[in-house]
Amino acid sequence: PVQGGQGRGARRDGLGRRSGVPAQAQRRDRAASSPDALVSALVAVAALWMQERRARKLLAIELLFKFDDRFNSEAFQRTRVSAAKALQRNEDSVAIDDVLDFFETMGLLAQRGALEPEMLWHTFFNWLDGYWHAAREYFKEVTSVASQQRYRLK
After folding, report:
1. Is the pTM value of this prediction over 0.90?
2. CA atoms of 67 and 120, how far apart (whole Å)
3. What is the pLDDT of residue 92?
4. What span, in angstroms and rounded, lies between the C-alpha atoms of 77 and 91?
5. Low-confidence spans in the chain with pLDDT less than 70
């Protein structure tokens, strides 16, 4: 048993103060625990920040693998073959738009911070570079048509 109202098991009055302990000692005890509470809060915030960074990186890797799976799927391989043939023949094709939209979506996600550009570059650069060069004329035509339509709408 605690004697004289001192220690952890001491009785408290209606305001939460320990009975029998001078007010000055109680203020000193609270002041001593404030830095400890601040340090604990800062450590907790730092741990949450680190955990959030790890979670973002894992999500970016998972998203990259999903894009890679889609890109190498049988259905998208057929789309890519169709797009490549259309680009070689200088024809218009929905497949071209599908492939270019795929790359555009990855670029948008990289700009927004959901994907890391370096990881995209290592995974898709050779493909993207090939489609970029093959689709130059297509880009010019699509951009020209889009510009004409934009001015017609105004």
Report:
1. no
2. 10
3. 86
4. 19
5. 1-33, 145-154
SS3 at position 71? helix
C-alpha 126: how far from its chain's center? 25
Are 96 and 135 in contact, with CB atoms under 8 Å apart? yes
Give the burial class of 102: count Cβ atoms within 10 A of its Cβ; 0-12 exposed, 13-18 middle, 19 or more buried.
buried
Q: 60-69: long-range contacts (C-beta < 8 A, 24 or more apart)?
A: 60/114, 60/115, 60/116, 60/119, 61/119, 63/109, 63/114, 63/115, 64/115, 64/116, 64/119, 64/120, 64/123, 67/102, 67/106, 67/115, 67/123, 67/124, 68/123
Residue 149 corresponds to which amino acid? Answer: Q
Q: How many CB atoms lie within 10 A of CB 131?
A: 21
How many of the other CB atoms lie within 10 Å of CB of 19? 11
pLDDT recorded at residue 44: 86
